[in-house]
UniProtKB/TrEMBL annotation:
Pathway: Amino-acid degradation; L-histidine degradation into L-glutamate; N-formimidoyl-L-glutamate from L-histidine: step 2/3
Protein name as it appears in the record: Urocanate hydratase
Gene coding for it: hutU
Boundaries of every Urocanase Rossmann-like domain copy: 213-430
Entry binding sites for NAD(+): G125, G126, Q203, E268, Y395, G586
Lineage: Bacteria, Pseudomonadati, Bacteroidota, Flavobacteriia, Flavobacteriales
Species per Swiss-Prot/TrEMBL record: Winogradskyella marincola
InterPro entries hit by this protein: Urocanase, Urocanase-like, Urocanase_C, Urocanase_central_sf, Urocanase_CS, Urocanase_N, Urocanase_Rossmann-like, Urocanase_sf
Cofactor binding remark: Binds 1 NAD(+) per subunit.
Length: 664
């Protein structure tokens, strides 16, 4: 069957032959057995409801074997035979171009070059899923192929509930992931209900089809590393940044270090993903011996090299060895997936990768003990370096949170509201006050034609727009503008594309709207093909996350999620092509609510109206919340926005004299 025929077929009437398990693919670890015998029957009943009864006797033992062997029912037999990648938009069988763009983005998220565990439909973070099983994928693609522009596809945590009548200005797809009743949002709840097949962890951009590979976070990481060095008054040249994690988003770190110009050491325990990053050019060298690593780093320091080195091993060993060898670490962080500490997000020191995976599945209580022991040791090693002047920051992966739960020595001796830990979140000290409060965040786009020349043209358009805006930008945002122009000018030479022809750029509302408008005009003139707009949920207003995105909110509201909910509601009626709302982004299940969107630009006047309405709201919703929390940069930014938009009227905070409060 052709690609188009397979898409239109959906769930096949005749079952395909079973697919052999491919050991060469990077697979998700086995999930722990958590279902009771009755719940296992329910999981099987839930999986079989996708299929005609005539197939149940064939599929039942197969699905039972998957559940026993992997802890989940992935339906490997249903994996398509065609290659998984983002095809040019015209190659999709679709009645709606908007729907075709969504199909493109789904396939990009599952591209083997992009996805962390492609056969388990997991894009990044160890558990960030696009779908729970292959039947959901097939049915969703069929619905998208059949959809017209007066229908909306409703997605319940990976399950396509169906097409419903709507209207042309409504979103074509509405996505929810993991939206649990609050009392059922603990880590083991995810294990249980995901195994039952009734919910999933969409991470941030995985479950909303907007992941663009490690590039998606390279820019933000580059900004963080650059400003980290600015914060300690050092040039990156010849100075050291130590971190860990190469799997999904974390794979961006060595590339960002190279762009910033420092010496980056990034530890990773998974041999397959380390080799993938080396082959992709996201790291320069791989070292497996600690003594060799020390010698190589000392040479890089002497020569003031810009280099990224992957250490294939545990990062705890690196921190300890560098202390023993008197190697000064200038910047330190960690980006292992500690939102998922018990199922592959963090590997304890002194256990091999294989032994850890075995213990994780077959002795989960002992594995948890080992992880917590390792976190305590990890924190102790970091503390030794910070006492010697290292600047350490949490990269929003729940490292400090899980270390605190393990009893590690990372709590502040003088805690204040929002500053409980010894070390800041990078949002608290860098991204929040410098970027998010002013409205700057990770705006991204994908060229739906699949043509590299279209991406080059959009890069040039974006650069021209930013340079023009910068001429009249206030002093408060000149640094942000300069950093972004430098980034976009170097985007091609840094070879950031993995998967689709995509780009990311930190921009404020003015920048996003003007860049998008320029794209739309270029499409209307036939200079480029359709463009899909989106962003990371890690942004100004898409996400309520008390230990990351909203960690620099100090009015006590950082544990609320009104902003993220309003964000997705507002985007949905202002013109987004699809919207999503998730529980459990990059910091963990039950720890965050985040919303995202996608928008298709087709060169029409209607698209021009939608982009202005939606992008303005998408940013300024968050600025207004940050302003109400009395964040100075946000107060400045929202006042400026009100000056440019007469229909915007935002409640501004009045400040209280601290001396007055001392009188009570």
């Amino acid at each position: 069957m052709s690609f188009k025929d397979q898409i239109l077929e959906g769930i096949p009437n005749t079952l395909p032959q079973p697919k052999p398990y491919d050991p060469n693919i990077n697979h998700a670890p086995k999930r722990k057995a958590i279902l009771s015998p009755e719940e296992e029957k329910l999981a099987l009943r839930n999986a079989l409801r996708y299929f005609d009864k005539k197939h149940h006797s064939t599929l039942l033992p197969e699905f039972k074997e998957e559940l026993d062997k992997y802890g989940r029912i992935y339906m490997y037999r249903l994996r398509p035979d065609y290659k998984m990648y983002a095809r040019p938009i015209d190659e999709y069988p679709a009645k709606s171009k908007q729907a075709a763009a969504i199909m493109l983005m789904i396939q990009n998220n599952l591209d083997y070059a992009v996805a962390q565990h492609p056969h388990e439909l997991i894009t990044y973070g160890g558990n960030g899923a696009v779908f729970s099983n292959w039947a959901q994928y097939r049915l969703t693609m069929k619905y998208l192929a059949e959809m017209n522009d007066e229908q909306t596809l409703v997605m319940y945590s990976g399950h396509p509930m169906g097409l419903f009548p709507s209207h042309k200005e409504a979103p074509r797809v509405v996505v929810t992931n993991g939206m649990m009743i609050p009392n059922y949002s603990k880590p083991d709840d995810w294990e249980k209900f995901n195994a039952l097949g009734v919910t999933q962890y969409g991470q941030m951009t995985a479950g909303s089809y907007m992941y663009i590979g490690p590039q998606g976070i390279v820019h933000g990481t580059t900004i963080t590393v650059l400003n980290g060095f600015r914060k300690i008054n050092k040039s990156p040249k010849g100075h050291i940044f130590v971190t860990s994690g190469l799997g999904g988003m974390s794979g961006a770190q060595p590339k960002a270090g190279n762009i910033a110009g420092c010496i980056t050491i990034c530890a990773e325990v998974n041999p397959k993903i380390t080799q993938i990053r080396l082959d992709q050019g996201w790291i320069d060298e791989k070292i497996t011996d600690l003594d060799e690593l020390v010698a190589r780093v000392q040479k890089a320091q002497t020569n003031k090299e810009t280099i990224s080195i992957a250490y294939l091993g545990n990062v705890v060993e690196v921190w300890e060895k560098f202390d023993e060898s008197n190697i000064h670490i200038d910047l330190g962080s960690d980006q292992t997936s500690l939102h998922n500490p018990w199922a592959g997000g963090y590997y304890p020191v002194e256990l091999s990768f294989e032994d850890a995976n075995d213990m994780m599945a077959n002795n989960p209580d002992l594995f948890k003990t080992k992880v917590q022991e390792s976190l305590r040791r990890h924190a102790t090693a970091i503390n030794k370096h910070t006492e010697k002047g290292t600047y350490f920051f949490d990269y929003g992966n729940a490292f400090l949170l899980e270390a605190s739960r393990a009893g590690a020595d990372i709590m502040s001796k003088n805690p204040t509201i929002g500053r409980e830990f010894k070390y800041p979140s990078y949002v608290q000290d860098i991204m929040g006050p410098m970027c998010f409060d002013y409205g700057f965040g990770p705006f991204r786009w994908v060229c739906a034609s699949g043509k590299p020349e279209d991406l080059a043209k959009t890069d040039a358009i974006a650069c021209e727009v930013l340079e023009e805006i910068m001429k009249n930008s206030p002093e408060e945002i000149q640094q942000q503008m300069a950093d972004n122009i430098q980034w976009i000018k170097g985007a091609q030479e840094n070879k950031l594309v993995v998967g689709s022809q995509a780009r990311i750029l930190y921009a404020d509302a003015e920048g996003r709207m003007k860049i998008a408008q320029a794209f739309n005009e270029a499409i209307a003139k036939g200079e480029i093909g359709y463009v899909v707009l989106g962003r990371d949920h890690h942004d100004v207003s898409g996400t309520d996350s008390p230990y990351r995105e909203t960690s620099n909110i100090y009015d006590g509201s950082r544990f609320t999620s009104d902003m993220a909910i309003h964000n997705v509601i507002g985007d949905s009626f202002r013109g987004a092509t699809w919207v999503s709302i998730h529980n459990g982004g990059g910091v963990g299940w039950g720890e965050v609510i985040n919303g995202g969107f996608g928008m298709v630009l087709d060169g029409t006047k209607e698209a021009s109206t939608r982009l202005r309405q939606m992008l303005f709201w998408d940013v300024n919703n968050g600025i207004s919340r940050r302003s109400w929390a009395r964040n100075e940069g946000a107060v400045f930014a929202i006042k400026r926005a009100m000056e440019t938009e007469p229909n915007l009227k935002v409640t501004l905070p009045n400040t209280v004299d601290d001396n007055l409060l001392e009188t009570i």
